[in-house]
Amino acid sequence: MSFDYDLFVIGGGSGGVRAARVAAAGGASVALAEEDRYGGTCVIRGCVPKKLMVFASEYSGMVEDGRAYGWDLENKGFSWDHFKGKLNAELDRLEGIYRNLLKNSGVESFDARAKLADAHTVALSDGTTKTAKHILIATGGRPWVPEFPGSELAITSNEMFHLEKLPESILIVGGGYIASEFAGIMNGLGVKTTQYYRGEQILRGFDNEARGLVAEEMIQSGIDLQLGNNVAEMQREGDKMRVTATNGDVTLFDQVMFATGRKPNADNLGLEELGIARGKGGEIKVDQYSQTAVPSVYAIGDVTDRVNLTPVAIREGMAFVETVFNGNPTSPDHELIPTAIFTQPEMGTIGLSEEDAAKEETIEVYSTSFKPMQQSFAGRAQKVLMKLIVSQASRKVLGCHIVAPGAGEMIQLAGIAVKMGATKEDFDRTVAVHPTMSEELVTLKTPVRTV
Ligand code: NDP
To answer: Is the full-model pTM beyond 0.85?
Structure first.
């Protein structure tokens, strides 16, 4: 049987574009459909614009620090219009790069929504159908807001990059990556920021000591972090939002952003008709090779809700190509993934938290918290944390947790050692780079506790 293409990819985000390009580079004939902007969540409404906003928001503190170092600096305020203009131009540039990457690799792209018509056919919203030997679904996810009276008034991270004007006050709901990162961004940009999180501490699942320090420093920097609180209902009052909280408080905010999790984009793709199973959260079920219940259809990235991170989706895409086009069955490796949360302060982490490791075996905890030189000189109170979780039996470093400016950069490098199976003694054998914050990771002499 002959097909129009060897591979048809649905979704032009990080995972889909990478899989399409790599397959095409290996000689496959490849097409890709994207209904929205090329680059997907990460490039258009996630990691990239978010990080640029983090950078923008950090300058307020830098001006103060600069003054403490003797610079005659004046902070005349932040122009949202200026920043937004530059941000939009940058996103246009990046989208162009993504389109060109596909074109230059010989991938045919369609600006259309695609849906499975059968195991080898996709129907495009322009009315045409295309056949392919293999179909890859890489449609990502979208923000999800719970239903409550007035929930339609809430905005999500998608809208944060397009605000007409910077609000004077904002309520951010949720305690995950997105909520906590945006709380730091808004606060840094000078917006009166309140964060409600329903649980006991933000960033559930991460090391307790690390997330405790992040929360403490967020509060120190001016965020009104309210734990054990949630939105009960909200209504419009003039150009503000009147929010009634579960603790009974009634407050007016200019904007209310919900970051209460994301849902896979797997509706109306024709999956049910083909018998492709979906999980409880709506994610597409796949095996270790990203293959669905229909052998010619694969899925990668957030739509499969495994580890929802851009670099993981990219890895899953490459493993798919290796499996299907290079005859080398390869499972994406989901173990020991380093990750950063761009809160202020930033957190970088790999491996097990103290709490999770202690459930498995006896561990030694090495940890130090201090005021780093640069901020301390400037009179800023922010503390950093360097922490290692070590197996008492094997001496392996099971987890590394860093809360510090630049923690994302640090954990990328420390992550190599941990991924390689480095022991505490390997860390100790490494000479310190002085004076740095991360040198503490190789000079932690005695455990603060054994649990
Ligand atoms: P998360 O799943 O990380 O967090 C969702 C938050 O919303 C949790 O605090 C959760 O509380 C809370 N929540 C869920 N339901 C409700 C509800 N009904 N009412 C109130 N609160 C609720 O989702 P995010 O949206 O923050 O991020 C999605 C994913 O995107 C992450 O898992 C991550 O993989 C990825 N991401 C990664 C980034 C990075 O690498 N730096 C940055 C941004 C996103 P509870 O804890 O109680 O369940």
So the answer is: yes
